[in-house]
Amino acid sequence: MADVSQPTYSIETLLAAAETGFGGSVPPAIVQTSLFTFETYQAFEDRMSGRTGDPVYTRVGNPTVAAFEEMMALLEGGETAVGFASGMAAISSAVIPIVRPGDRIACVEHVYPDAYRLFEKLLRPFGVDVSYHSVTAFEQEPDLLKGVRLAYLESPNSVVLEAMDLAKVAGHAKRHGTLTVVDNSWATPIFQRPLQLGIDIVVHSASKYLGGHSDTVAGVLVSRKELTDKVREQALTLFGGKLAPFEAFLLVRGLRTLPVRMRQHQETANLFVEHLTGHPLVTRIHSPAAGSVAGLTGRTGLLSVELSDRVDIPAFCDALKLFHLGVSWGGFESLILPSRVGLAQAGEQNSMQRFGVSDRLVRLSLGLENPQDLWRDFSSVLEACAK
Ligand SMILES: *Cc1c(COP(=O)(O)O)cnc(C)c1O
Question: Which residue range(s) make up the domain with 251?
Answer without folding.
Answer: 11-30+61-95+141-150+169-256
